[in-house]
């Protein structure tokens, strides 16, 4: 089975459609004001209004107020939530949506414990740890830190691009890969050529 692909940090309708045209399975919308890829509710609605069926839309939050998340859920069609802050399992589960818990990996991170702590997560999203930055750093972490017996699906993020995604898939065997900066011409603006090259890398990993 081909590794699934999520292209995150979508801010424009044309980029969402380009991602889908090249084979992405999901797109990510960042509801974090501090992020250069932040979208308002209106921007999010516009970005996904022309998506075809069977494409998942993921909303990314960092320690957001529950009232804000609930407002987004009322106005934007989100299939899954992605939590990048210090949200507890109870906080992640309160919205009756599938969710991923993002973990910023460093050498002392106990990923097996995270899997036990978040048993109802659909997956753990593994990203690079950069002090003071919740995600989207464009930096890669040491993939050998991922236990081979992690008992839930892995979504691999952090510094992925067309040059290293095949290697990442072959080494980690994740359920999915998540890319943002690696397919951009500038922050928040995707590059069709880079998306196409990234998807070729994903396909090559299966050969």
Mean pLDDT: 94
> Terminal Cα separation, in Å?
11 Å
Number of helical stretches of at least 4 residues:
7
- Number of E-state strands: 10
CATH-wise, what's the superfamily?
A: Aldolase class I
Q: How many distinct domains?
A: 1
Provide a descriptive summary of the structure in words:
- Its EC number is 5.3.1.24.
- Pathway: Amino-acid biosynthesis; L-tryptophan biosynthesis; L-tryptophan from chorismate: step 3/5.
- Belongs to the TrpF family.
- This protein is an alpha/beta fold.
- It has one domain: TIM Barrel (Alpha-Beta Barrel).
- Helix content is 29%, strand content 21%.
- It is built from 7 helices and 10 strands.
- An 8-stranded parallel β-barrel has the order 1-2-3-4-5-6-7-8.
- Helix 6 packs parallel to helix 7.
- The longest helix has 14 residues.
- The protein is globular and about 40 Å long.
- 40% of the residues are buried.
- The mean pLDDT is 94.
Give a brief outline of the structure.
The protein has helices spanning 13-21, 41-48, 66-75, 89-93, 111-117, 165-172, 192-205, and strands spanning 4-7, 26-30, 56-61, 80-83, 99-105, 123-128, 154-156, 176-179, 184-186, 189-190. The protein has 207 residues and is of the alpha/beta class.
Task: Please outline the helices and strands.
Layout: E1 4-7, H1 13-21, E2 26-30, H2 41-48, E3 56-61, H3 66-75, E4 80-83, H4 89-93, E5 99-105, H5 111-117, E6 123-128, E7 154-156, H6 165-172, E8 176-179, E9 184-186, E10 189-190, H7 192-205
Parallel strand pairs: 1-2, 1-8, 2-3, 3-4, 4-5, 5-6, 6-7, 7-8
Antiparallel strand pairs: 9-10
Helix pairs in contact: 6-7
């Amino acid at each position: 089975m081909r590794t699934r692909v999520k292209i995150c940090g979508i801010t424009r309708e044309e980029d969402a459609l380009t991602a889908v045209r090249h084979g992405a399975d999901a797109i990510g919308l960042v509801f974090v004001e501090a992020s250069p890829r932040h979208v308002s509710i209106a921007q999010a609605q516009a970005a996904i209004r022309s998506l075809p069926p069977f494409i998942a839309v993921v909303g990314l939050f960092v320690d957001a107020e529950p009232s804000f998340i609930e407002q987004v859920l009322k106005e934007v069609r989100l299939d899954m939530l992605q939590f990048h802050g210090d949200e507890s399992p109870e906080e992640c589960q309160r919205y009756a949506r599938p969710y991923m818990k993002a973990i910023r990996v460093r050498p002392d991170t106990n990923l097996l414990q995270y899997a036990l702590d978040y048993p109802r997560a659909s997956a753990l999203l593994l990203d690079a740890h950069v002090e003071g930055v919740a995600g989207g750093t464009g930096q890669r972490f040491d993939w050998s830190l991922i236990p081979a017996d992690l008992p839930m699906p892995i979504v691999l993020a952090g510094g992925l691009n067309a040059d290293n995604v095949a290697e990442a898939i072959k080494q980690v065997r994740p359920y999915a890969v998540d890319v943002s900066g690696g397919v951009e011409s500038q922050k928040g603006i995707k590059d069709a050529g880079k998306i196409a090259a990234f998807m070729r890398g994903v396909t090559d990993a299966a050969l």
